[in-house]
């Protein structure tokens, strides 16, 4: 089954400039880890932001988890729970003046969780964080701990599609290894589809079942596991 | 046994010819937090060779470079038993001498050209400024063209460009050209390729190493990437929490049996690690 089907997707960020994404096609299977790799400016992050519903100014056709979001509209209903994203910079993606508890409780309230506090503490231990960190602010955590919080936040609504935008490129190599191990573990636990954007071919080859090489707003080639093994 | 023991190059050099840069018991601490030094009594020499200072963020490698350049700002302060560059005692250098030294015999390339270059001067003007400050006799226009083409920026438009008109890789090469303009004896490069794409990384590193070899220049490369260092350097010093915990020949990094070096070396993901857990190290085991 297909989790994500994109057909002739185009995105312009500036009206007169050439499109950042240029009639792009993409199909990702249910339960697959799909990688997007390419040089800076190739449109990989923009594609992810469209699939997350952050960038709504696009043309073409998108099918996400059997629903068809429309351009210029916010995601509605199930998609808002089922599609979650982890951003590159854990310093910028968490509210600096909200405690970790508040950051995690907000989405739980939105989805009407039964016992939000219990679920929040459980979410923290799932990503390997001490529940006592709940009362801390982001600046009191290390970069790796912050990225764990961002992953915990994304997992709270039990998403079916997890979008990862360079989740480890702001981290030290040894911390990157810990976060990649965590992502592999939660992927198995939650049986999600994952789309991972990275400029690091090593990260893509370690994580993905298939990967698309992006260049100037298009997917030029899709690599299978046999090709990724050689990276 | 670590490979610290079998690699005695720095010792032999100290006995024979004098190293370019000699650091003994360099300690950096913050005046406001007296308890634990950020860099804790490290010693190393750099001769006419390519030496890497590797470690993760917070290990003190950038501060070490800044201390050598005399660029530490309060509340940080450095103390050293010896800090010598090319026969000069850096611990008691007057400001005027520092101004002469920095940018001529001793040069520093920083991580991100977008912040390191002056945004309101053209590349040509910035390189000429280096020559005005240090070498008044030289034909500035010609020398500027020479150093720019040496870093692969022969296009005459580059001279007239402002930093924002260049790509990240071009900016980084322009900064390198500027630092090479006065033929330094020692070039310190602080993560010179971290802000660049994979292709450009190779290009900039190869350029620096080639210059180091052909101009008989010492190179101190600061990096967090062990694999990169193993390819481009002669020796490596591994820093962890302010101390040099491991050192030896860069080609032998993979064979080190220090737990930190081993973990750093093997934690890099690749196609071969697919489906397996990446090794992570026990921070407690390495000590405080």
Your description of this structure?
- The complex is a heterodimer of chains A (231) and B (288).
- Chain A is α/β, with parallel strands linked by helices.
- Chain A has one domain (2-95, 146-229): Rossmann fold, CATH 3.40.50.
- Chain A has eight helices and nine strands.
- In chain A, the strands form two sheets. A six-stranded mixed beta sheet of chain A has the order 5-6-7-3-8-9, sandwiched between helices.
- In chain A, a hairpin with a 2-residue loop joins β8 and β9 (218-223).
- In chain A, α3 (100-110) crosses α4 (116-126) and α5 (143-155) packs parallel to α6 (173-190).
- The radius of gyration of chain A is 17 Å and the shape is globular.
- Chain B is an alpha/beta fold and 288 residues long.
- Chain B contains twelve helices and eleven strands.
- In chain B, the strands form two sheets. A six-stranded mixed beta sheet of chain B has the order 7-8-9-3-10-11, with helices on both faces. In chain B, strands 1, 2, 4, 5 and 6 form a five-stranded antiparallel beta sheet that branches.
- In chain B, β5 and β6 form a beta hairpin.
- In chain B, α8 packs parallel to α9 (198-214).
- Residues 1-15 of chain B have low confidence and may be disordered.
- The chains are: A alpha/beta (231), B alpha/beta (288).
- The interface between A and B is medium-sized, with 26 and 24 residues.
């Amino acid at each position: 089954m297909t989790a994500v089907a994109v057909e002739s997707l185009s995105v312009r960020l500036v009206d007169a400039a050439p499109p950042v994404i240029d009639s792009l096609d993409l199909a990702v299977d249910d339960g697959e880890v799909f990688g997007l790799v390419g040089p800076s400016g190739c449109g990989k992050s923009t594609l992810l932001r469209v699939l997350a519903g952050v960038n709504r100014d696009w043309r073409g056709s998108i099918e996400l988890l059997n629903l068809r979001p429309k351009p210029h509209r916010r995601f509605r209903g199930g998609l808002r729970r089922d599609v979650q994203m982890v951003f590159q910079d854990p310093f910028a993606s968490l509210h600096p003046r909200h405690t970790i508890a508040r950051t995690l409780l907000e989405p739980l309230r939105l989805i009407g969780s039964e016992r939000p506090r219990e679920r929040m503490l459980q979410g923290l231990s799932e990503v390997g964080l001490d529940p006592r960190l709940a009362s801390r602010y982001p600046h009191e955590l290390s970069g790796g701990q912050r990225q764990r919080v961002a992953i915990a936040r994304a997992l709270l609504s039990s998403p079916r599609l997890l979008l990862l935008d360079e989740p480890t490129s702001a981290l030290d190599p040894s911390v990157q290894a810990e976060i990649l191990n965590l992502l592999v573990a939660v992927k198995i636990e939650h049986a999600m589809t994952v789309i991972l954007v990275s400029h690091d071919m090593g990260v893509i080859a370690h994580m993905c079942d298939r990967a698309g090489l992006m260049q100037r707003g298009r997917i030029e080639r899709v690599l299978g596991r046999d090709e990724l093994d050689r990276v | 046994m670590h490979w610290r023991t079998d690699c005695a190059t720095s010792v032999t050099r100290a006995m024979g010819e004098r190293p370019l840069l000699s650091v003994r018991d360099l300690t950096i601490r913050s005046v406001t937090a007296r308890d634990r030094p950020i860099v804790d009594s490290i010693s190393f020499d750099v001769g006419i060779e390519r030496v890497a200072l590797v470690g993760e963020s917070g290990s003190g490698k950038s501060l070490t470079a800044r201390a050598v350049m005399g660029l530490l700002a309060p509340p940080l302060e450095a103390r050293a038993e010896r800090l010598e560059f090319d026969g000069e005692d850096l611990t008691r250098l007057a400001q005027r001498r520092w101004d002469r030294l920095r940018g001529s015999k001793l040069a520093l390339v920083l991580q991100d050209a977008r912040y390191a270059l002056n945004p309101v001067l053209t590349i040509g003007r910035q390189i000429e400024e280096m020559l005005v400050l240090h070498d008044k006799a030289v034909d500035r226009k010609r020398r500027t063209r020479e150093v720019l083409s040496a870093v692969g920026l022969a296009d005459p438009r580059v001279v007239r460009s402002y930093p924002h008109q260049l790509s990240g890789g071009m900016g980084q090469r322009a900064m390198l050209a500027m630092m090479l303009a006065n033929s330094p004896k020692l070039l310190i490069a602080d993560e010179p390729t971290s802000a660049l794409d994979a292709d450009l990384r190779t290009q900039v590193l190869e350029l620096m190493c080639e210059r180091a070899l052909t101009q008989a220049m010492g190179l101190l490369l600061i990096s967090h990437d062990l694999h990169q260092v193993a390819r481009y350097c002669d020796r490596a010093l591994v820093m962890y929490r302010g101390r040099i915990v491991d050192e030896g020949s860069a080609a032998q990094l993979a064979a080190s049996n220090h737990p930190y070096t081993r973990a750093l070396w093997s934690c890099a993901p690749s196609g071969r690690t697919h489906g397996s857990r990446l090794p992570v190290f026990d921070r407690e085991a390495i000590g405080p």
